[in-house]
From TrEMBL:
Domain (HAMP): residue spans on this chain: 198-250
Reaction catalysed by this enzyme: ATP + protein L-histidine = ADP + protein N-phospho-L-histidine
Name used for this protein in its record: histidine kinase
EC numbers: 2.7.13.3
Length: 593
């Protein structure tokens, strides 16, 4: 039943059926009322005419048998008569059916009819009397009492009565006709309802199925309709709606992809918050940053952000204004900007952009340190050049030998300044990518051994044992800029010799590590303190005086070496234990044979 009621056909069918039933009910009631009134009026009129005719016949004919015969012919098949010359007694009667005696008794004894004997007025009354066909059944009768002679003060009365069973039969036939009409109306209603179903609800079903397909995301769904009425126009509008939905969703999808690409490609961390401070959206840098803060326990338990950022978020949500700050969190510096997000005129959340300023701070510190270090490195040779030059100009030197010694010092300091400037220029070119490498394929064993043997004489003079060891075959090759790698080796071996005491050892070793050649320079010197390990490859790093044995450099060699190795797609690192020696090593990619 629910299925029928929930369908258009069922609703249309039930509506038409109820409408037809209501109309038939009203028509039946009115029809029965009309037929009852009409039948009553007809019966009354007929009975009046028959009573008048009987009275006239009875008064005009002296022969009683002829009068009764004529009266019997006049009366209808459902009509009976009783003639009483005096009250309460019947003189003559005509009765067809059962219970005639009882009927006459009741009619003659009815008090309302007694007035007819004394006046010229007729009295008609509906009475409940025994049935003409059944013994123990009562029926409704209409009884007319009409005077026979109106000239006398006391006169006779003719009683004509007729059963109203005719009206009941008429009403029953009428009811049967109504029920038949209702059945025919039911059939016609059902037929027309399902006929309309094929013309109306069938296109609606197609549109319903199409709507479900649209809800599933199939925006290519189209509904066909051959009619040009409202349903056809609805189908056309449905198809246009599907096309517009597809177009708008494609535009939204493209904008979403563009926004996602922009957020993903941004180096800055972007986080979007809801009104209740929950995270709605974040890009990969933001997710990594939040994970890092969680690991470091910077974020309080149950909170989305560190305390400093929560204060900024509260300010934005309550005061609806942008906030920009630069904060230090876990040793990193961030330029943080919070902006409110609006939905109409109310704030629905906020967006935070975190720009990592750590590198800028580091570069600024490096710049400051660079200026300080360069100033410090240049101050000494410049002061010495200036002092000895003034001494020579003032003829301070007492002998030629002293003047030559001063000139030698001036020359050495100028050489030192030249090396410093050259190293600075080389380092700047390497870091800016402007220095070009001239790579050739070489056999590593021979090249590294040759570079090592260059320092044999210097090692003998310092009473240090210098060795070359290799674990790779002579055919192992790499594509390198030989001059630049030699610059790296020169720096590492020279540092090892300078930092190794007499009777110590420096071993240069070549090994194969995967697809790389590992070149290491190992010494037995005093090693590097743990606190200095992180600064070994920075500019102007120098070992302390106690470890250099009075032999200092510019402090740029390892920084230059690091950049040269990285330019060869390799890496350089150091291992050292204080008091047990140091091992500098770098990796170079091997040439695939």
């Amino acid at each position: 039943m629910n299925r029928i009621w929930n369908s258009v056909v069922g609703k249309l069918w039930i509506t038409i059926l109820l409408l037809v039933s209501f109309v038939l009910f009203i028509v039946t009631v009115l029809l029965l009322e009309f037929m009852g009134n009409y039948h009553s009026e007809t019966v009354e009129e007929t009975l009046n005419k028959e009573a008048a005719t009987i009275a006239r016949i009875f008064n005009d004919h002296a022969n009683l048998e002829i009068s009764m015969s004529i009266i019997d012919d006049i009366l209808g098949p459902e009509t009976n008569a009783v003639i009483a010359e005096v009250p309460y007694e019947s003189s003559y009667y005509l009765h067809n059916g059962m219970n005639g005696e009882e009927i006459r008794e009741r009619i003659l004894n009815e008090e309302e009819f007694q007035i007819v004997f004394e006046s010229d007025e007729s009295v008609m009354k509906q009475m409940l009397l025994p049935s003409l066909s059944d013994e123990d059944t009562m029926e409704s009768y209409i009884v007319l009492a009409s005077p026979l002679q109106t000239s006398e003060e006391m006169h006779g009365t003719v009683f004509i009565y007729q059963s109203l069973e005719v009206m009941d039969r008429t009403a029953e036939r009428t009811t049967n006709i109504v029920f038949l009409s209702a059945f025919i109306a039911l059939l016609l209603t059902t037929f027309f309802a399902f006929f309309l179903s094929s013309r109306i609800t069938s296109p609606l079903r197609k549109m319903r199925e199409g709507a479900f397909e649209l809800a599933k995301g199939n925006f290519d769904t189209r509904v066909t309709s051959t009619s040009k009425d409202e349903i056809g126009q609805l189908a056309t509008a449905f198809n246009q709606m599907g096309a517009q939905l597809k177009h708008h969703l494609e535009v939204i999808s493209q904008e979403k992809e563009q926004l996602s690409s922009i957020l993903t490609s941004m180096a800055d961390a972007v986080i979007t918050f809801n009104q209740d401070k929950t995270v709605l959206l974040s890009n990969p840098p933001a997710e990594k940053l939040l994970e890092y803060w969680v690991i470091k326990k910077t974020i309080p338990e149950g909170k989305p952000l560190p305390v400093e950022l929560l204060h900024m978020l509260d300010h934005v949500l309550h005061f609806e204004e942008e906030v920009e700050e630069e904060l230090e969190i876990e040793g990193a510096y961030y330029a943080i900007s919070f902006s409110p997000l609006y939905s109409g005129e109310t704030v629905r959340g906020a967006v935070a952009v975190l720009h990592d300023m750590t590198e800028q701070h580091k570069l600024e510190k490096l710049r400051e340190d660079f200026i300080a270090n360069v100033s410090h490195e240049l101050r000494t040779p410049i002061a010495m050049l200036q002092g000895y030059s003034e001494a020579l100009l003032d003829d301070v030197g007492a002998s030629e030998e002293e003047r030559r010694e001063m000139t030698k010092i001036i020359y050495e300091e100028s050489q030192r300044m030249g090396r410093l400037v050259t190293d600075l220029l080389n380092l700047a070119r390497l870091e800016s990518g402007q220095m070009r490498l001239y790579k050739t394929v070489v056999q590593l064993n021979g090249v590294i051994e040759r570079m090592t043997l260059k320092f044999s004489q210097a090692a003998k003079e310092a009473e240090i044992e210098l060795q070359f060891e290799t674990e790779i075959d002579d055919w192992t090759a790499a594509e390198i800029d030989e001059d630049r790698i030699e610059q790296v080796m020169t720096n590492l071996i020279d540092n090892a010799l300078r930092h190794t005491p007499e009777n110590g050892r420096v071993i240069v070793r070549a090994e194969k590590q995967g697809n790389f050649a590992k070149i290491s320079v190992n010494d037995t010197g005093s090693g590097i303190p743990p606190e200095d390990m992180a600064f070994v490859f920075e500019r102007f790093y120098k070992a302390d005086k106690a470890r250099t044995l009075g032999k200092g450099g510019t402090g740029l060699g390892l920084a230059i070496a690091s950049n040269i190795v990285k330019a060869h797609d390799g890496m350089i690192d150091v291992k050292s234990e204080h008091g047990q020696g140091t091992s500098f090593y770098f990796l170079l990619p091997l040439k695939k044979m």
